[in-house]
Amino acid sequence: MKRRKLLKSLSLAPLAGGLLGGMLPLESCVSAPSKAPAGTKVDYFKELGVTKVINASATMTFLSGSLMRPEVMEAINSTAHDFANMHELQDKIGAKMAEMLHCEAAMVTSGAACALVLGTAASITGMDSKKRKQLPNLPGPRPEVIMQKSHRYVFDQAVTTTGAKIVEVEGPQEMEQAINENTVMALFFNAAVNWFGIKDSVNHEEFVAICKRNNVPSFIDAAADVPPVENLFKYQKIGFDLVTFSGGKMIMGPQSAGLLYGRKDLIEAAKLNHSPYEAPIGRPMKVNKEEMFGMYAALKSYLERDHEKEWQDWLDRIERIRTIVGTVPSVIGETHVSPGPANALPSLHLWWDLNKVKIQPKDVNAALKEGTPSIVAGVGKKGDKQVLNIGVALLRADQVDVVADRVKEILQSATA
Predict the structure, then answer these.
(1) Tens-place pLDDT, residues 259-302
(2) Does residue 24 form part of some domain?
(3) Which residues carry this modification: N6-(pyridoxal phosphate)lysine (predicted)?
(4) Domain containing 209 — which CATH number?
(5) How far apart are CA 109 and CA 406, in angstroms?
């Protein structure tokens, strides 16, 4: 083609493209460039230089939570090719999850931390659109949220994000006296005893009873508190108005998803404070449609799972690792079950005679992390002894022997 004709054809290209765009399917006009041959999988870990980690610890956010199950990935992938009205999707998924959880209403949030923001916001605003737009800068006295002093934790910043003020109490009497016209909610951190080793000054039943007497919404943060599966139902039976669990821990949904469920009026108010509404405080905490479908599939799968069989599988993994590592002189392994309620999972405690195996558990832990593959385990205490803690619940089946062999290798190399 001569240069003049080429330039003429190019000048007509935008018009032709506009016409074609209105007449032909998009895929007929645009071809996606691909460097990899058809059927070739790209290793994005390798491409980006990101280290793959074997999680022999627990469902920690910095380790990307848990691994999504195949049925969750199927839900995500199968819904990625169509649009949906997000209001309808949240309503329909929430209704189905409420049926599964035997509660009035439910919704998908962007993790349990988002649920804390939305639950607090709902308790402040109710259905008042003016208040929703004013958060976190409501005029007048700050809304107050009651918490036990021993329950203060890093995540309660999610509460104050709404503009609320946290009021600390100790004991039922002090809690009752702290309630006033500015009190909008009371928050119970379920894993406080687990985290801090301090007994609750107000137990679950007392907490709920005080809230109900004073018409104050009660909210329990139980983010990491399954298993057992019964915990999904336990706290609403006690009478908590709002409950949150993380979706990306042992429910094994998307890490960026969570559950908020309970009283219908509060859930409806929470939705109004969330995306896809354009102005509210929860707008930056949106959940995409694929994560919503994935969270629904994860909850459905979790409730249908054979939990006794799953627990036995974890115990079998412990026995397998103990058998392999136990061939090193003086090494002793013992099954340990965390008392919970957070991360109440079985793990393997290992210790040894330091005169025979000349390496400390903390140094074994460091060597596991720095090795290839990188294995993240933990260090704990048994009496006055330091122990190596190997979590098994988050290992893939093919990783059990990898972990066992690597621990054995490190211990053998330190054997006198």
Answers:
(1) 999 999 999 999 999 999 998 999 999 999 999 999 999 999 99
(2) no
(3) 249
(4) 3.40.640.10
(5) 39
